[in-house]
Amino acid sequence: MLRSILYWIYQKRWLLFAVALGAVLYNLPRPDGISTEGYRTLVIAVVVVILIISEAVPLPGIALMIAVLQVTFAIAGPSEVAQSYMSDAVFFIMGSLMLAVAIVRQGLDARLTLAILKLTGTRVKSIMWGFFVISLLLTSFIGEHTVVAMLLPVALTLIRNTSEDPNEVPGLTRMLLFALAYGSIIGSIGTPSGGARNVIMINYLSDFGLAKIGYLRWMIFAYPLMLVQIPLAGWLLSRTFKPERDRLDSAVHKLKAKVAAAGPLTGQQVLAIILFIIIFLAWVFLSDRIGLGIVALAGVFLYLATGLVQWQEINQRTNWGVVLLFAAAISLGVQLKNTGAALWVAQQIVAGTGGLLEQFALAQYGLVVVFTTVVANIMSPSATVAMLGPLFMNFGGDPVLLGLATAVSSSFGYLMAVGAPAGMIIAATGLIRPRDFVQAGWRITLASITVLLLALLLYWPHIR
After folding, report:
1. Band of pLDDT at residue 109, cut at 50, 70 and 90
2. Alpha-carbon torsion, ordered 293, 206, 368, 459, to 10 deg
3. Which of 195, 305, 169 is nearest to 247 (CA)?
């Protein structure tokens, strides 16, 4: 009995530590300059960060806890908390996940890859560039987890058609898988639909009365950064891993045979492509008026109404826990802003630097970008933006630029598998070692940080 209790305590040590620390902080005297509600919101944020990093509780469970603690700590009433859990940003995240199910169901992945190979030929480095660029461009409109899920089976097929044991061609395996992952990570900054973190920041900027940034406006800010990183990141990746083969003629021939056996595009596949183009155009031209989320839900309705996907499939394959987590993250971020907690923490940081952040824009931008990058490689990008966005927007500089910098740098999850959904997906294959992420990612991380800092100093101020 005692052994079972001790084992349970060991298993739940991080949960018990988070609860104990939260209880101690809750009962400590409140610091000067912050409201009771603001201080209690910070206590929740500390507990949430510990639980997310330690993975002591399933993420949807943390989302439920955030709602419960906001009410029990008397930070907000139940109706206010419930309302903060549902917004256009949450509609967009939910709709995007549902659209991903509908798109993947159409089985366009092999055809898409063959189209890439027709452009690249059979040279390995050319194929790497093809996977890198197409995953980057697709992710900017669909979402990284969807693109990697679509293209990963085909990349693995190419690898296994080259060698029955992928471990016999580790250089080729890592080059192609990281081309998919890093292309998807970089592409996720390009548009709001590239990642939930982007929509969370758009929601903050709107709710805080700072700026109305629609789909096209976001692209004006972020898409050039994405395009600049293509040659930099692709070149760095090609220099990191050395493939064991120069050409993949046999593997490509087998893929062509598979696509030929499937026959021409079906009417349903053509309709699915047309509907997605309509949804994309609506995001670009209508999101300012009706919201990104409403467009996404309208797209889901069209796929359901035309019979391209069944509700049972959407219900089974949509990760509802992710939707709940994003809703909770947005809700907590709103409370950090509304209670003054984010402003108070920002003031303490600025005061602690002796005014350096107020005097030098580069120091301010550098701290925001580097700190966000580090945190995003430990936590999820969306949770990072939800926590740090309200804080950094109170640093005293241009809150819109600081908010955008937080969102973009949260995508620099190149160093650890948990830093981005794409990284977790390729790590789940068992073909990528943890040290491979550092080997491939540190150079690209430095390049991405440099590009973003240059944009903050030389590009964004002129289009603000």
Report:
1. low
2. 90
3. 169
CA dist., res. 239 & res. 203, Å (int): 39
Measured between alpha carbons, how far is 53 from 315 in angstroms, rounded to an integer?
28
3-class SS of residue 247 = strand
DSSP secondary structure letters along 318-364: S-HHHHHHHHHHHHHHHHHHHTSHHHHHHHHHHHHTTTHHHH-HHHH
418 has pLDDT over 70: no
pLDDT band at 313 (very low <50, low <70, confident <90, very high): very high
**CA 38 to CA 45: how far, in whole Å?**
11
**What tokens were used for 408?**
């973009």
**What size, in residues, is the chain?**
464
d(CA 128, CA 303): 33
Nearest to 287 by CA among 103, 86, 88: 88
The pTM (predicted TM-score) of the whole model is: 0.75
The helix/strand count (H/E) of the chain reads as: 25, 0
Q: What is the dihedral of CA 444, 445, 451, 453, to 10 degrees?
A: -170
As a whole-number percent, the residues of the chain with pLDDT over 90 amount to 34
Cβ atoms of 411 and 195 within 8 Å: the answer is yes
Q: Write b or e for each residue in 177-216: b if 16 or more Cβ atoms lie within 10 A of its Cβ, otherwise e.
A: bbbbbbbbbbbbbbbbbbbbbbbbbbbbbbbbeeeebbbe
- Residue 274 reports pLDDT greater than 80: yes
| Helix extents (H) in 85-195 | 88-104, 109-120, 124-142, 144-162, 170-187
Contacts of 170-174 with C-beta under 8 Å, sequence gap 24+, read: 170/244, 170/431, 171/241, 171/242, 171/243, 171/244, 172/124, 172/241, 172/243, 172/244, 172/245, 173/431, 174/241, 174/431, 174/432, 174/436, 174/440
Q: What is the mean pLDDT of the chain?
A: 86
**287: which 2 tokens?**
């999101």
**Cβ 105 vs Cβ 156: under 8 Å:** no
Say what the pLDDT of residue 348 is. Answer: 81
